Amino acid sequence: MSRNHVILAVFKRNVQSYFSGVLGYLFIVAFVVAAASFTFSAQFFTKNVANLDQLTEWFPTLLLFLIPAITMSAWADENKLGTAELLFTLPASDGEILLGKYLAVLAVYTVALGFSVTQLFVLGYIGDPDWGLIFSTYFGYWLAGGALVSAGMFASVLTSSSTVAFVLGAGFCAIPVFIGHIPFANDFFVSLSVPERLTDFGTGIVPLSGLLYFGSLTAFMLYLNLVAISRRHWGADRQANMGTQYAARVLAIAVTLVSLNYLASHATLRADMTSEKLFTLSDATSELLDGLEKKRPVTIQVFASPQVPRAYVPVRQQLLGLLRQYDQLGGSLVEVRIVDVEPSSEEAEQAETLGIQPVVVRTDRDGRQTTERVYLGARISSSFDAVTIPFFGADLTVEYELTRSIRTVSNKERLKIGILTTDARIIQGESGWQIVNELKQSYDVEEVSADTPIDDDAYDVLIVALPSSLTDPQMDNLVEYVTSGEPVLIFDDPFPLFMPTNAPRLDKPRQGGGMMGMQQPPPTPKADAGRATRLINTLDIAWNYDEIAWDSFNPHPVFGEIPSEYVFISPDSGTRSAFDDGSKITSGLQEMMVAYAGTIRPRAGSKVNFQPLLKTGPNSGLLGWDDFTSQSFSMRGPTVQPNPSPDRVIDENAHIIAAHITSDEPGRKLNVVYAADVDMISDWFFMVRNRAEQRDQLPNFDNVTFILNAVDVLAGETEFIDLRKRRKNTHTLQAIEARTAEFTKERTKAREAATKDAKDRLEKTKKNLKEQSDKIEEDDSLDPVAKQNMRLTIQAAEVRRLQVAEANIDSEKERTIEESKRKAERQARDTEAWFMTAAILIPPIPALILGLIVLLMKLANERKNISTDRLVSR
């Protein structure tokens, strides 16, 4: 049994030895500076997320230099100075001395890691980090360093040279760091690597498998240390025999620990440190599982690839971790089956038969770009119903998907959603847009025609996209249905970007071929010439069918060149009520994007209840049709394209993109959610949330969540809305966003000033032309023919001058706008560079100060111990 006072004595001796000199502090300062450099890299500012992802990626490599620097003198100096033998003559066992030294070196590493915590103050200043995730990440750093410390000490015990110990230590530490990158490494070896094990901690969870991995690696390397220092007891005559015995023991221990780690890798026990508790079942799920009736048992059959690309590792881990909790809470009523699926296997055929489709992902394997077919779906079934989740994507809330599906299959009947047939063609038979497939996970979905009156009792929610494309009789039937008070979700759009020919201002496209579609009769005109006047009047709102909103707010560098007509809706835009926290539809949303969206507002004196749901930021404005489009013609009629550089003027209003409109007025009962953009439900948003490998490039938009929330609220199914919103928050770099927003506002104002100046100069030139023409008319000395000739001559010359002036003015305007754009970009880069420099220079300051204090104290002590007669007076 170890004696604590002996271990403590060895511990104090080694810690004091390390921190008595300045060299130890220099290593710490170098480590802190390197860590800050990795944390606050250029990629950190590009991603605009306040976390330690960049440091986590490089941390194992960083340890290859730090750990050997700390451990190289642990045994080597003892061997070199001959104090090792003196140390082992103390009344202490080899294990006690080893443990004391290990704890001392671990304390040094802990101090170094502690000094790097100063960078978290910088992180907290410029952003809003998830401190639970930060804690789990740092805990992972400490465990990884603690394990490699034992490997570095083993290198030190083999030599009496610190330099050789450093090189050997780096080599020993490189084995668990790079074992997953060697050419012949398979997924099993990858799972034994330090970077792979740090992934869990970097996502905010502390898994049992990770604790066992780092603990077993530490124990194994400490055992090697013990074997190395106990060789002096073997004797010369027993060296070979004892060496063979200990080699066999080491091999047996290694095999045992590797086997335990393999078994633990399939365990799902873990601690959830994230602020959102994404890896812990919510109360809503627990209540659902408790309420399952015995006659309705549910089977969850998950088909998952055993190994997935790194981007999908957190999704797979969360899925398997939650399934264990479903299995435990559900008892005999929930049966969980997990099927490992390899490509081209019988399991793969079974999965695809059930509708679980693989996603083809490009990934990097051994430095080569390859494609992999990844299976990560589930089939939830009962005796009543079955739901298939084809693939758990990056932005899918795993718990929501599972719980929603359990609720669906445990009910005998589903609510029914009707989708009105319009020119948007959201639903066509059994197929359609992705929103249709999403709704089918929870509801029965049916196509509805407006050619005849719509049954008031047939649908729990009616969805209408582009009602402005309806004909007169269809519009009348829709208005009659809307005024019945039945729930309706409407999407209309002045400029549907993915189908611009369906813009309300344009005539219905002609069908068929031939020049201008002349082989087919002209289509039936749109009701109210596309203005949807009857519907708008019924809702008592104002909506201009040819006017869109723009917003200069753009928090995403990846979308740096995107036009301002792509509007990012977020409270960070400067409008705190960008999402209405009082509505279940929008409370808890973080960010949405709409494209060339219209705006709505209540009319003066309106009697309906108008609840804004989505708003632009204050640095926004409106554009008319002639400003934001350029028109051309095609075989099917007129077409329009977005104008890439319209004249934008900030009106500093928060424009409303969507609202919930209700009324109990007799003869006009309303329950309508109206959104002035149809692109927000396009397939692109569904595709993005499924692609984990694009998470580093694309933001996590809440468009899909908004749509599903709106349907649920209208249908009265609100019990799982909070569960759907339960996802990782976007912890952005708010300080940088605020500074960048100021530059963007200045750029927009400079553009407005340049546009206004160009218009004024052009008007002045036109005025001069008119004045000269008027002078000729007023000259009575000229006969009519001479006046006409002079007028034509002057007009021709002035037209040419006007054309030249227009070209010069436009060129100067564009030059001024481009200069303001470059200035704003420079200011944004300078801001990031300033924060980056400060973030790298500030963290090592405490270590530098402490090292300087130790140096001064050491010099003072040395001077104190020198005889006065030996001091040189100056």
Shape: globular
The largest sheet, given as strand count, sense and whether it forms a barrel, is:
7 strands, mixed
* Poorly predicted residue ranges: 513-517
Q: Could you give the count of β-strands?
A: 25
| Backbone CA Rg | 35 Å
Distinct helical segment count? 28
Ends distance: 60 Å
How does the helix and strand content classify structurally? alpha+beta
Q: What features would you describe in this structure?
A:
By secondary structure, the chain is of the alpha+beta class. The chain has 4 domains: 4-272, no CATH class; 283-386, Glutaredoxin (3-Layer(aba) Sandwich), CATH 3.40.30; 414-728; 738-843, no CATH class. 49% of the residues lie in helices and 15% in strands. The strands form 9 sheets. It has a 7-stranded mixed β-sheet with strand order 12-9-13-14-25-24-20. A 4-stranded mixed β-sheet has the order 4-3-7-8, sandwiched between helices. It has a two-stranded antiparallel ribbon with strand order 1-2. A hairpin with a 2-residue loop joins strand 24 and strand 25 (668-675). The two termini are 60 Å apart.
